[in-house]
Write a structure and sequence with these properties.
One of its GO terms (molecular function) is hydrolase activity. This is Adipocyte plasma membrane-associated protein. With 666 residues, the protein is an alpha+beta fold. It is 29% helix and 26% strand. It contains 16 helices and 31 strands. The strands form eight sheets. A six-stranded mixed β-sheet has the order 2-5-6-7-12-3, with no helix packed on it. A four-stranded antiparallel β-sheet has the order 1-28-27-26, with no helix packed on it. A four-stranded antiparallel β-sheet has the order 8-9-10-13, with no helix packed on it. Strand 19 and strand 20 form a beta hairpin. Helix 14 runs antiparallel to helix 15. The protein is globular.
Length: 666
């Protein structure tokens, strides 16, 4: 021990690698969590796509915006003049993905190539302090982009202006980059003192509903390049600040935070979540105007990593990115030496930044938290080869976009295995194949095809459940007498809803009991099996004869396909319960038309009308009802017709899915 101490002292005095002196403090972290339950190790992030490879560097944060698409123009990296685009030149309304790069530029990466929107630094800048380093991007309520620059301050960029910068005619082309629109305005300068001192390291930003801009200042001592020193030091000198556009000044909201980093407002701005990287936790600041105003509490603690940015998923949950993973099977200087400040100081002196980083294994991880702060899902890259350190995780169009500080690409991974229309279109646009394609028209076609496939699955599932129910009854009930066989065949109802099946098992109802009751009572029981349901008659699709009002019906739930109005995908009931009436009507109409064509018995107009009448906003449990035949021969014909329709729809949907899969793969 004495020999090691002597060597350490000599190294501190004479080592040329000696870093800036840190002032470590004592703190305590709970034992690192085990990778069990929701933290169980997986390889989801190893499948991440490298989006915009070699076109961007250090895309750390993202903002999504639906706005006008301007004609592409060229931009010189050094020389500009201001031009004006005529309103007639605006091409369309498009979804934009904005991000900030290591060179201080704000770019749009939604389409083919990369479009420069604005540059935070002046022309001919050389250093990160001069050019700026975008740390976080957000949209305000007026469609303007708010950018947190680590060194320079808070900027606001107007994305809808008609004025834009263009390349001079004789300048050299700027690779694949071109210029869109964007005028920047500095709202707050880091050199302006707030609470007695200027900001050293601005990190994340968020915009409240009233326009107030909240942002974090991570350290009073160290700039962005010395993030490692902030962690090894362990001091709580970070602050939460607020800027008001009305007063044009910033104030201190909270102080004494340990490396405050990411920010995310809760629903209706009732609270603010703050990730404290130095303590591996997320704090919750109450914004309610009551006794809890500005009270701070723990939202999630002992996280499986050092948290960076936090973003809402749009489903009531939150995605948390981790700059460094931490769990019980890996080494972590922050954990192993939390109670040994002098050892952390020696390590900071003896080793370079790269050497210190190499002491911790590369491991990529992001987590999804529910509204209580509990972890419900994690995505891992145990190798750290595809994804290691993540600055931000944000969900859009079936993709989870992952930010980084130094990678020459944007990592993104599909959130589900299910085909997603917007994800497919995003991939299509980014590979430069959409220049001659009507994207809006293609979106409508794909949504209708998915509706057809969903209806096909529903019909086949209903048919299987009907056959299983009939087989179950045949094995548990005695065969009817000759005098009543025809009556039984004409009145038995094959309920395919879970509620009616459960009720049948509990009450012990038998086919004989059903035959003794009038057919109208049987119809009433079928209607009572669900609450606030809608019915779409399929009898007209399978038989040209009109259905009698007294004929019992068999209900088939879920035939009206619900589509996600944001992504165009089939809605997972566990994620989202409803959509707009227009999309439901469109899906049901197109599905009914295709099934009618497949059966060849009813005009598409009639089927479409019935589908539309079945899709109303008040219908929370859509069902499809089909009339049972009153004789054995009619029942058989109806079953054959349903099978024909389902099989035809199956063939059509299979061809569609195959084509889509081939296109997506290509």
């Amino acid at each position: 021990m004495m020999l090691f101490t002597s060597f350490s002292i000599c190294f501190l005095v004479f080592s040329p690698l000696r870093a800036a002196d840190i002032l470590p403090v004592l703190y305590e972290l709970p034992p690192s969590p085990a990778l069990t339950g929701a933290l169980e190790q997986n390889k989801a992030l190893t499948k991440a796509e490298r989006y915009k490879l070699n076109q961007v560097v250090g895309a750390a944060s993202f903002a999504f915006h639906r706005g006008t698409e301007l004609p592409p123009t060229n931009l010189s990296s050094q020389s500009y003049f201001v031009g004006v685009i005529d309103s007639d030149d605006i091409e369309s309304i498009s979804d934009h993905i904005y991000t900030g790069l290591a060179n201080g530029k704000i770019v749009d990466v939604s389409d083919c190539g990369v479009k420069v929107v604005a540059s935070l630094g002046p022309p001919y800048c050389r250093s990160e302090q001069q050019c700026g380093r975008p740390m976080a991007l957000r949209m305000d309520g007026q469609g303007r982009l708010i950018v947190a620059d680590a060194h320079r301050g808070i900027f606001r960029i107007n994305l809808e202006t008609d004025e834009f910068k263009v390349r001079q005619p004789n300048s050299t082309p700027f690779d694949t980059m071109c210029c869109s629109t964007g005028q920047k305005e500095m709202l707050y300068s880091s050199s302006t003192a707030v609470g007695g001192r200027p900001c050293k390291f601005i990190n994340d930003v968020v915009v409240a509903g009233d326009g107030t801009i909240l942002f974090t200042d991570s350290s009073a001592r160290w700039p962005r390049q010395e993030q490692l020193s902030i962690l090894l030091e362990g001091q709580s000198t970070g602050r939460l600040l607020a800027y008001s556009d009305k007063s044009n000044q910033a104030i201190v909201v909270l102080k004494n935070l340990s490396f405050p980093n990411g920010l995310q407002l809760g629903p209706n701005d009732e609270f603010l979540l703050i990730t404290e990287t130095g303590r591996a936790k997320i704090s919750k600041l109450s914004l309610l105007r009551d006794n809890s105003w500005l009270s701070l509490s723990d939202f999630a603690s002992n996280l499986p990593g050092l948290p960076d940015n936090i973003r809402a998923s749009g489903r009531g949950t939150y995605w948390v990115a981790f700059a460094h993973a931490r769990h019980e099977n890996m080494t972590s200087l922050v954990d192993d030496y939390d109670d040994q400040p002098q050892m952390r100081r020696i390590i900071a002196k003896m080793y370079s930044k790269d050497q210190i980083k190499s002491m911790t294994a590369r491991y990529g991880i992001v987590a999804e938290l529910d509204e209580t702060g509990a972890i419900i899902r994690t995505l891992h890259d145990p190798t750290g080869l595809k994804v290691d350190s993540v600055s931000e995780a944000i969900e859009k169009d079936g993709y989870l976009y992952l930010g980084s500080w130094d990678k020459p690409y944007i990592s993104r991974v599909a959130t589900t295995k299910q085909f997603n229309v917007e994800r497919f279109l995003s991939k299509l646009k980014s590979t430069c194949r959409a220049t001659t394609i009507n994207i809006d028209r293609l979106r409508v076609i794909l949504r209708r095809l998915i509706a057809i496939a969903e209806l096909r699955r529903t019909l086949l599932a209903a048919k299987r459940r009907q056959e299983e129910e009939q087989a179950r009854r045949a094995t548990t009930q005695a065969p009817p007498t000759d005098s009543t066989s025809s009556t039984v065949d004409s009145t038995v109802t094959a309920s395919v809803t879970e509620t009616s099946t459960t009720a049948l098992d509990q009450t012990g109802s038998t086919p004989t009991a059903a035959t003794s009751a009038p057919s109208t009572d049987t119809t009433a029981r079928a209607s009572d099996s669900s609450t606030s349901t809608a019915t779409l008659s399929v009898s007209d699709m399978t038989s040209s004869a009109p259905t009698s009002a007294a004929t019992p019906v068999a209900t088939i739930p879920g035939a009206t396909t619900t589509l996600d109005e944001e992504t165009g995908g089939i809605v997972d009931p566990s994620i989202e319960e409803a959509t707009t009436a227009d999309e439901t009507t469109t899906a049901a109409t197109s599905a009914a038309t295709v099934v009618t064509t497949a059966s060849g018995t009813t005009s598409s107009t009639q089927a479409g009308t019935e589908a539309t009448s079945a899709s109303t906003p008040a219908e929370t449990s859509p069902e499809v009802t089909t009339s049972s035949a009153t004789t054995d021969s009619t029942a058989a014909a109806s079953t054959d017709s349903q099978t024909t329709a389902a099989t035809s729809a199956d063939t059509t949907a299979s061809t569609i899915v195959s084509t889509i899969s081939t296109s997506a793969t290509t």
